Amino acid sequence: MSVTVDVFIKFNGSKSELTKILANDFLITLAKKECWFLGFIEFGLTSRAEDRQYFSLSRNRPYDYVLWGTSYLWSSHFGNAVYAHPVIFDSLAQVLAAKLKTRTMYSVPDWGDHRRYRYIRPMKRNKLSCVVDEKTRKPPK
User: Fold this and answer.
1) Which residue, 61, 126, 69, is CA-closest to 92?
2) Contact 21, 100 (CB under 8 A)
3) For residue 13, how far is the Cα from the chain centroid?
């Protein structure tokens, strides 16, 4: 059994630019054969042009790219580390929204869970909160 977690990204640049940002800032390399984060998350990056079916739901339409990661629950070698996968991707969605100054969405299709984040320009009163949850309009907890 496996769990796939998606991070949808609204990004106006090319796929190679996004790949370079992921590799330089987050150490996520898509061309490597080894898996990321203790060797148990397998990555992929898909654009809207490559797979229109991935973006067919109405909540996925505003995004240009999806960074997906799959972890395999049958791997007893990693124990409870596999449960960190959704938490890592949720955090990654928040950090990408701030880094790229755009909108992102964390989604676990198997569980029906999703959260949208967007970057807001910091003001004097909220210098530390640059990312807000679109549903609650507050910084994520």
Assistant:
1) 69
2) yes
3) 17
Per residue of the chain (141 residues), what is the pLDDT tens digit? 678 899 999 999 999 999 999 989 888 887 766 666 666 778 889 999 898 888 888 888 889 999 998 887 655 555 565 677 888 899 999 999 989 999 999 998 877 888 999 888 766 665 666 777 877 777 777
58, HSE (Cβ side, Cα atoms, 13 Å): 0
Cα(131)–Cα(109) distance, integer angstroms: 23
Domain residue ranges of the chain, discontinuous segments joined by +: 2-133
Q: How far apart are CA 136 and CA 43, in angstroms?
A: 29
Q: Using CA atoms, how far apart are residues 100 and 35, in angstroms rounded to an integer?
A: 24
The structure's pTM equals 0.80
Tell me how many degrees the CA angle 40-3-14 measures, rounded to the nearest 5.
Answer: 80
